[in-house]
Amino acid sequence: MKAIADMSSDEAAGIRFVLMDIDDTITRNGKLQPESYMALWKLKGAGLKVIPITGRPAGWCDLIAREWPVDGVVGENGAFVFWEEHGKRRELVHPNAVRNDHPVLNRIRADAAKEVPEIRIATDQFARLFDLALDFAEEEPFLPLSDAQRIRDIALRAGAQAKISSIHVNVWMGAYDKCTMTEYFLHEHFGWDPVNEDRAVFFVGDSPNDEPMFSRFPLTAAVANIRRYENYLHHYPALVSVRECGEGFAEIVDTILQKRI
Fold first, then answer.
1. Angle at 238 between CA 253 and CA 54, to 5 degrees
2. Does a cis peptide bond (omega within 30 degrees of 0) precede residue 141?
3. 162 and 127 in contact (C-beta within 8 Å)?
4. What are phi and psi of 100, to 5 degrees?
């Protein structure tokens, strides 16, 4: 990973879309930081398309699509995208998305509780439509990453999809992830060319569930707290900030905008 300062002016000038994870990328300790929220407005003011790509639930994404300065939000690790158009909230659901009352998810939930008794259902689960979120590091007691890996492995053995974020293990049925829905939305809604416009997309993340994005796009960055997962990643972002969380995101955005001048 190179420093974000090493990004070239030509790379910055070619960016049309800035995508970002939410938890621990633009937040710190669960709170949206003022620097990162202002950075979203700066991106909009510069004429760039701004799209959060998150594991957070449909209920949160409805609010984000309506109230944040964004052009859409991909939620529940790619199950859907919400956006606002002509004063109305629109949505696109992935054709492979399966509602989260699936019996396999119920079995994984029970097996996870047996394997790691302190694991718990995320408190935002009530707002979810398609995935099961198991909390290991959002609320106390905070569990080690090794416990999250054990839960992920249970889910994978049961035939589900599973990704580890900085706070949750997200588990779902259906073949999709953050990247597949992002590509579909960019192509269908904005006319993005997946063959010739790879470098028009810039993604910022912080954890293992961002790997599909890191592996797909050449222009990716992470906030500095990505380093706690270095031994768990197979695909790394190209660039990294000096600062962590929302301050790191603001650093990345300021660098992009300065290099576009």
1. 60
2. yes
3. no
4. -85, 20
In whole angstroms, give the CA distance from residue 127 to residue 120. Answer: 16
Q: How many residues does the chain have?
A: 261
This prediction's pTM? 0.95
* Cβ contact 195:64 at 8 Å: no
**What residue ranges in the chain does DSSP mark as E strands?**
2-3, 17-20, 27-28, 31-32, 49-52, 73-75, 80-85, 88-93, 120-121, 131-135, 161-164, 168-172, 201-205, 220-222, 239-240
Q: What is the pLDDT of residues 161-211, one digit of tens each?
A: 999 999 999 999 999 999 999 999 999 999 999 999 999 999 999 999 899
Q: Is 243 exposed, middle or buried (0-12, 13-18, 19+ CB in 10 A)?
A: middle
**Secondary structure string (H, E, C) spanning 21-42:** CCCCCCEECCEECHHHHHHHHH
Q: Confidence band (pLDDT; 50, 70, 90) for 45?
A: very high
Domains of the chain: 2-95+176-260 (3.40.50.1000), 103-172 (3.90.1070.10)
Q: How many CB atoms lie within 10 A of CB 98?
A: 19
CB 55 within 8 A of CB 163: yes
